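Archive entry: two folds, one per protein. Generate the first.
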Amino acid sequence: MLTTYALHHIDNADSFGFNPDDYSRFKFGDDAVSKNFGTALANGFIRQHLQHRPIEQQIVVISSPYSFIPTATFAMKNWFVYTLNRWLAANGYLVVQETKVHRTITYKEDYGELNAEQRISLIGNDSFHIDKDFLAGKTLIFLDDIKITGSHERMIMKMVGEYSLHNDIYMLYFAELVNKTIHPNIENYLNYHQVKSIFDLEVVIKSGSFAINTRIVKYILNYDFESFRIFIENQSSDFVNLLYDMALGNGYHTIDAYAKNLNFITNYLFINNHKLIQHGN
């Protein structure tokens, strides 16, 4: 059984049911917004589904696929699980388990700018992997932030078929584009609604509720070098080290478009560490 649920339905390019600035900050790592989105999605799902037809099986929640760096959805997933677990525990049901969909390909293209055909062409080269044995006899909830063309959902269901999964499946989204006359690049309109330049990231990174994700790492590494250099020199050592380690973990050092900026970070960290050693720290 496949059931889909979206908290918000977008049928107007000027009205979304949520704040576009909030969504933009969420996509670039604002965990305070992730908390609001994840909590609201869980409460909506409980109202629309669980209160009327509770799930008796063990539930497994699965965030959108990633390699090493989590997606923005991963942060939303955490708060979704916390809220759902409170309801499950209060009503005598098993609390949630989690697992991961592994993906094998990383790319520099901005997915939100592509049309439906370009999206499936890009993501279709990827392959998703999951632990089939762990899922046996359980109900699966696949979580994503937004459904635009359905290409991501088709890839998930392709994986379900390849692994011969016979589980009950829920596909949950914070929002879904239901008006197909609206171009899919409405996603990027939302993604960049508040983030117009690399310097707009400062308020998110230094907010005290920052959760790094693939989008912000790729955005920074792909930025023009002079602005990137100024931005990096204004960040804390902890952030620059985190950015560097995330980039390496996703294999971004093998992507030519990121080479110049990553080389700068390498040298920047080496010089800073050398200065610390010189001063006996």
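Generate the second and append.
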Amino acid sequence: MTIELFFAVLFFAFSTTITPGPNNVMIMSSGVNYGIRQSIPHWLGICLGFPLMVLLVGLGFGVVFDRFPHLHQLIKIIGTVYLLWLAWRIASARPESIATGKSKPFSFWQAALFQWVNAKAWVMASGAVAAFTSVTGVYWYQVLLITLAFLLVAFPCVGLWLVCGSALRRVLTVPLLHRIFNISMGLLLLLSVVPVLLEIWRYYFTSSA
């Protein structure tokens, strides 16, 4: 992989990581509800968990799902249901329950494992490997460089959403505004699930038509 191609991978990784998606919506909500310090495990789980996913998908894990597409669809359904539950959890979170410790932020492992049920993460990982590897180069080395690119951009990109959430935390001191924010983030997360729901619908109900 040439230096020019690596910068192209970096740009792809940056543009896909900085844009809204389940990870960024959730880390921003965590910043608002729990602050930066309590959200650090969540942040690290995303920043390390997703590059690991890219590495494993690139080194052949994705082949399993190509061979067994129903297994991939099952994971996608489980992930979608989980995202719907998370959207409800975020939307229904009340400031008083957060303050009393009844509601807690994601742990490192929760955030890392979440990548495997995150539809956007699958698109990013498989898309990057498909677009930036070639049969003429050393495949495993190309996958390592793609993984490195996502690792480099993850910390600042996801961190920016966390910092923005923490900044909003100082503004949303009125409980009503805090509730409105949580409901808005829950709805935004719900909207991110819609394309996946449509894909599942097409797979099971229109593919044979």
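Annotation attached to the second fold: The chain has a mean pLDDT of 81. The longest helix spans residues 22-67.
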